[in-house]
Amino acid sequence: MKNKIISVGAHPDDVEIGMGGTIAKYINEGWSAKLVHLTKAELSSNGTVEERETESRNACEILGAEPPISLSYADRGLMQKREEIISDLVQIIRREQPEILFAPFYIDRHPDHGHCSELVKEAYFSSGIQKYGYGKAYRPSALYFYQINGMGTPDFAVDISTSVDKKYKALECFSSQFQQSKDSIKTPLNESYLEDLKSRDRLTGKEAGVSFAEGFKSESLLLHNF
Q: What residues form the membrane-spanning segments (predicted)?
């Protein structure tokens, strides 16, 4: 479908961290977006599966995205179900027919993020092979990678100056992850993570000549016509 985005993450909140502002921006411009989580993040230090599912739905509602899809594979066990996950992702791609597909950047301190990136890349390729699986072949026009952790140099950036507030309002839905309570375990996520993330968005924006931006990587050469 033209003007549709599918963004895949290993866990609820991955997509919102990396490209929540981009999703909100393009939805405001008439695109539709669907988020896909490979796991329910059941091994998270804080928050229950039920809490995280509610947080994810609320975040999608704020961004204007469709209700998220959870494939419910095992947290930290993605590569044990490699072929099943690729097949599931191919069916989602063929059914939803997004114009653009997004995955986490493959270099990340969390192994699940890198594994998710690899699986989405495989599904992106296989979805265009008619004899793979069942259903009519369809491959999105582009696959891009959003950044979760780290400060790698992006290949391009999206101006989110008008949607940055909506991004961080959506991220605030994940209170189990980003807020400390008397019962919570200290993690990198609840120790100034959102402040650091916003600084990254601000720095990326400054380098691009705008107030806030999100950076993306591309494996294919991007053509720009002046």
A: none
In DSSP notation, 155-206 reads SEEEE-TTTHHHHHHHHTT-HHHHS--TTPPP-GGGSSHHHHHHHHHHHHHH
CATH 3.40.50.10320 applies to domain 4-218 = yes
The C-alpha atoms of residue 70 and residue 82 are separated, in whole angstroms, by 16
pLDDT tens for each residue of 147-194: 999 778 999 999 999 999 999 999 999 988 888 777 778 887 878 899
Q: Say which residues have a Cβ less than 8 Å from residue 172's Cβ, sequence separation at least 6.
A: 178, 194
Residues in the chain predicted with pLDDT less than 70, given as ranges, are 1
Provide the residue ranges of all domains of the chain, joining segments of one domain with +: 4-218
**DSSP secondary structure string for all residues of 56-95:** HHHHHHHHTPPPPEEEEEPTT-GGGGHHHHHHHHHHHHHH
Q: Calculate the CA 23 to chain-centre distance.
A: 9
